[in-house]
Amino acid sequence: MRDHANEHDTDPQQSNMLPHPPRDHGGTARASQCRLTPLPDGEVRHDAPIAFVYRPARNPMQSGPRPKRWMLQLEPTRPLEIEPLMGWTSGNDPARQIRMPFSSREAAIEFAEAQGWRVYVLPDHDRKPVIKSYRDRIVAKPEPLRRDAGKKAIRQEFAPTRSTEEKASSSQDSSTELLDEMLEETFPASDPLPLWSGRIGPPSNSAGATA
């Protein structure tokens, strides 16, 4: 009876395909065990795909820190096409879907060079946080108090001055004088001003009888 399990065991050094590269406990690929096609030192295939190594940006939908892992992504070799039946945008480029995470930039470069790929490392720009302070817009700014003057000086500062009182009295006198002039003009000079006797109603006949 033959052992069929040994027929599927292949050597990674002699195989041309490795469907799933081995990973370490952190979930990143190990470049030392993913060498599919050994090449001499310094030799690069001209038909090899271009690999971009970059560090992903922070997710704008979350407030967490920026991820520390590095990504390896292959350059697309075929354009996207529109599916004629449903209108979906798709393509038949297998390299477009490859995105491999690595724990460091050096590990990603080592893995790409082991495959004979041309590597381009995108610059990593660390954004410095800009601290914006809105404290000056909501904090009150009272004027400094004069400690040497005391409470008496503050009361005198907010107390009404004599000039305002004089202005109020002069305006009241002018209004009364204007009212008197208007009353004198409404009656002739021969008729005296009517005086109120304190009674309400028609005048009594006692005054005429005595006359």
UniProtKB/TrEMBL annotation:
Annotated region described as Disordered, given as residue ranges: 1-43, 145-211
UniProt-listed InterPro entries: NADH_UbQ_FeS_4_mit-like, NDUFS4-like_sf
GO biological process, one term: electron transport chain
Keyword Electron transport found: yes
Cell compartment(s), UniProt: Membrane
Protein name: ETC complex I subunit conserved region
PANTHER family registered for this protein in UniProt: NADH DEHYDROGENASE [UBIQUINONE] IRON-SULFUR PROTEIN 4, MITOCHONDRIAL, NADH-UBIQUINONE OXIDOREDUCTASE
Sorted UniProt keywords: Electron transport, Membrane, Respiratory chain, Transit peptide, Transport
Biased composition (Basic and acidic residues): 1-11, 145-155
Domain of life: Bacteria
A Pfam family hit: NDUS4
GO CC entries: membrane
Organism: Leisingera aquaemixtae
Principal subcellular localization: membrane
